[in-house]
Amino acid sequence: MTDQRKNELKAWLISINEPAYELISLNGDASLRRYFIYGDKIAVDSPPSSQKNREFIAINKKLHDAGIYVPQIFAYDLDKGFFLLENLGSTLFADIAKDKEESFWYEKTVNVLTDLATVATEDLPPFDRDFILFELSLFPEWMLNKAFNLTLDKSDAKMLQDSFSKLADLCLKQPQIAMHRDFHSRNIMIVQDKLAVIDYQDMVKGPITYDLASLLFDCYKVLPQVLIDKITVKTFASYKKLNLTEDLSLEGFKRNLEAVSLQRHLKVLGIFCRLNIRDHKNGYLKDLPRVLNYAINESALLPGFESLHEFLIKLIPLVKTLCP
Fold this sequence. Notes:
This protein is α+β, with helices and mostly antiparallel strands. The chain has helices spanning 4-15, 53-65, 93-96, 102-116, 129-147, 154-172, 210-216, 225-241, 250-277, 288-301, 306-313, 316-322, and strands spanning 24-25, 34-38, 41-45, 73-77, 82-86, 176-179, 188-191, 194-197, 204-207. The strands form 3 sheets. Strands 1-2-3-5-4 form a 5-stranded antiparallel sheet, with helices on one face. Strands 6-9 form a two-stranded antiparallel ribbon. It has a two-stranded antiparallel sheet with strand order 7-8.
């Protein structure tokens, strides 16, 4: 089958006087963006009808101005949805930050989180109540209804609605800063001894603990509790120096961290099911038990979420039926 977009991308690269290299697929993204190695650079097919290309360019500049390592944009065509980017190599944080090297590399992320907290927020979309509740609605829609074919009784439906509202409150009461939204081990590259950030086009202004929650309660790996505690304390101290935590105590910061992590994991349960059902990408199903376990633990730690905790425990055997 002819790949028209790929052919058009190759023609565009030639038209901007790039040498004629082969486009070598480098995918793995959950979106419709496609990445290709092109010589010593990266070519991107990012359909303008579905991708946030203008945001990608604007946020790339924001992050660079804040001292964060992001790929240089050599050329782009917004009408076509094509980009030519710096090649950051193939060393994923997820592949290196483990075993004896794990603590060393995770401690380096605190500097990136600190720089992210200084990014200007005036033109970032707000992670507001409607946004938060929409994300949470993906859990009943795509996991409960479409994956499990569950019909909730009035009691459970109200319990979820109340839990979602309380989670929104806990997110909104926190200091609001620039938020990557997907700051985890697969979206950080290691270039020599530096950390580079990718997949940032969905940045918003949101709760201060969100990116830390994405990193420490990673949907693709589980960190030792000792390391979680160490990075939490270091990040809190770093935010404190920036006067971002107001009168928040470390314990209050940890409660906020658990709350946004629970919100995120409920959303991800829905997204992973949607990727399987709608987009025919079943590679994320194997991660469902880990994400559900996170949500179970977080709902146990947070006061007022006892009913949600009991509800989530009942989903364990259902999730097992989805896993490959």
